[in-house]
Every structure is written in structure tokens, then in C-alpha cells.
Amino acid sequence: MAAGHGSLAGYLGARVGADAAAILAFDGVAKRYGTLQALTGVSFQVNRGEVVCLIGPSGSGKSTLLRCANALEGIDAGRISFDGVGVDDKATDVRKLRRRMGMVFQNFELFPHLTVLGNVAVGPVTVLGMQRSAAAARAMDLLRKVGLADKAQQHPAALSGGQQQRVAIARALAMQPDVMLFDEPTSALDPETIGEVLSVMKRLADEGMTMLVVTHEMDFAKRVGNWVVVFDRGQVIEQGPPQQIFERPTVTRTREFLSHLGWHGESLASEAPLVERQAPAASDSFAAQLIPTGSGGHPGADVP
Ligand code: ADP
Ligand code: MG
């Protein structure tokens, strides 16, 4: 087990989904690029209904880990299992497995020639073999859910970055994945559109979606995450509940990383809004509805 985990035995019983097998488990995972050791002995797990946030400096291997998780990259040692099946096992149907993991990237990667609706409906039609009408209906439902029903017939280029990322989230959800993997979903966004994306993600978490989120948004990790994994130089240096990581990290480098980001141990009891810089446009009332007004107790805590 990774450093810091052993001392947390008392927390483990309370961890979301701990009474069932993990949906995604990394066990001693190593990955090299030539002579560069990108991942070393990475062990942690994501339980069903959890929001696990992966934090750490740039270049520490976070994106590599997500790519290994859905078999876009092979691993050199260790094991990654998804719902009990080895991702790297020869017998594993990688395409089938990937369908069950929704992936959201920093740069949206929408199809520019398709409408917003087309972007969300195309996977269910081409990959799942859904009827076009049914896929379009599902896509509209999801666009409503992310507050973009009125943009259905637009092309991605006509949308703001935050809106495009909400489309990318809807597109991933259209495949009805078991887990959503996010790789710095707000890093490429203008500050004023970050909040609307985080709000959509928070609502997904509230609904019980299992999520693995690479993020530099510490407020999000603190309030929405129920488990935080800290990466440095390809290794898990610490993991635990947000209270531990943000209030009393056990590892010096965790503290250094957080203070580098301007984090100096604010209390979890703080009642400040999740996303203070969120300033939704008047027309974007959906985002406005999503701004949480309450405190940041873990939303997935009562998810079965
Ligand atoms: P993070 O997402 O935490 O910023 P990455 O996973 O992107 O980190 O990168 C981890 C390390 O692996 C970095 O040193 C990066 O340069 C290297 N790396 C990532 N992808 C490749 C690749 N395809 N080929 C060679 N080196 C890579
Ligand atoms: Mg990255």
C-alpha cells in the first residue's frame, strides 16, 4: 500500500463504497517511456459511488495513469483492474471496456463538423448501435442536464470553452459509463467558465456517478472529492480523505505542493461557495441553479 494509507485504517470503514469490490483498482502499476519512469508502484482504488481526486504537480504522471486506466497505454508492471477484470489481460476486450469509462479531456476534443446534438448522439449510434431517434432523444436529455438544450443545433465553434466542455461531459455520459475519468477538465478554460463545468461535475457526483478526477481545483477536490490521491514524480506520495490532505497532510511534499498552489490549510468547515469566481451569464440560468449554497459535506456519502 502507498505511504500514508496504513495510518488511515480508521477511515477505511467510512469510505464510500468500501463494502463492495472496487470498480477501478491500481496495484503496483509501473510505466516507462524509454528511460523515463513515468509511474512507479502506483496503488490506489476507486470504489463505486466515489469521487476520487488526483492532484499533483505537472509532469507527475496523472495523465499517464488515466491513459493506462483505459488501456490507451500499456503498463510495464503491476495490475489495473476494472470491475474485477485486468485491463491489460490478453483476453480483455479493450473496446468494450473503454465504453464503460467516460473520458473528459482538457481540450474537449469535440467533432467540429458535427452539431452539439450530433456530438452527443454519435457514440450511441456508431458504437452501441442505437437507433438515431433514440440516440437523439438521449442526447437531448443530457444536453438539458448540462444546461445546453438551446445549443443542440449549433456547432462546437459557436460555443464558449465551458459550454464545449459541458457538451464533452454529455457526450461521455451518453455511453452510460460506469465511471467517468476527467483529466484537468477546467485547465484550458477562461476563469469565468470554470464554475459552470465544476457545477455540472458536482451535480454528477451528487447523483452518485463514480468519478476519477485529475484537477488543480483544490476547492473542488476538498468539497466534492471523498478521497484524494497525491501524486509526485510518478508515485502516490499520500492518499486519504480531503480533511487529511488539506488540513493535516502527513507528507511534507504534499504541503509544499498545496502551498505552491496558494493553499494554506483552510478549514473544511468553511461555508464559502464552492466556486466563488462563478459569474454565470444572465441567459445561463442552469449554471446559476447549480451554484451550491450549502456547506461542502461529501455529496456521495449516502450513495449506495
Ligand atoms: P501530468 O499529467 O501529471 O502532468 P504526464 O502523465 O503527462 O504528467 O507525464 C508524466 C511524465 O511522462 C512526464 O515527464 C512526461 O513528459 C512523460 N510523458 C508523458 N507521455 C509521454 C509519451 N507519450 N512519451 C514520452 N514521455 C511521456
Ligand atoms: Mg496531465
Give an overview in words:
The protein has helices spanning 9-12, 62-69, 94-99, 116-126, 132-145, 161-173, 191-206, 218-223, 242-247, 252-260, 285-290, and strands at 24-33, 36-46, 51-55, 77-82, 85-86, 101-104, 179-183, 210-214, 227-232, 235-240. The strands form 2 sheets. It has a 6-stranded mixed β-sheet with strand order 6-7-8-3-9-10, sandwiched between helices. Strands 2-1-4-5 form a 4-stranded antiparallel β-sheet, with helices on one face. It has 11 helices and 10 strands. The longest helix is centred in the middle third of the chain and has 16 residues, at 191-206. With 304 residues, it is α/β, with parallel strands linked by helices. Mean pLDDT is 86; it is low at 1-12 and 276-304. The protein starts with 8 loop residues before the first helix and ends in a 14-residue tail after the last helix. Bound molecules: adenosine-5'-diphosphate and magnesium ion (MG). Residues 33, 36, 38, 58-64 line the site of adenosine-5'-diphosphate (ADP).
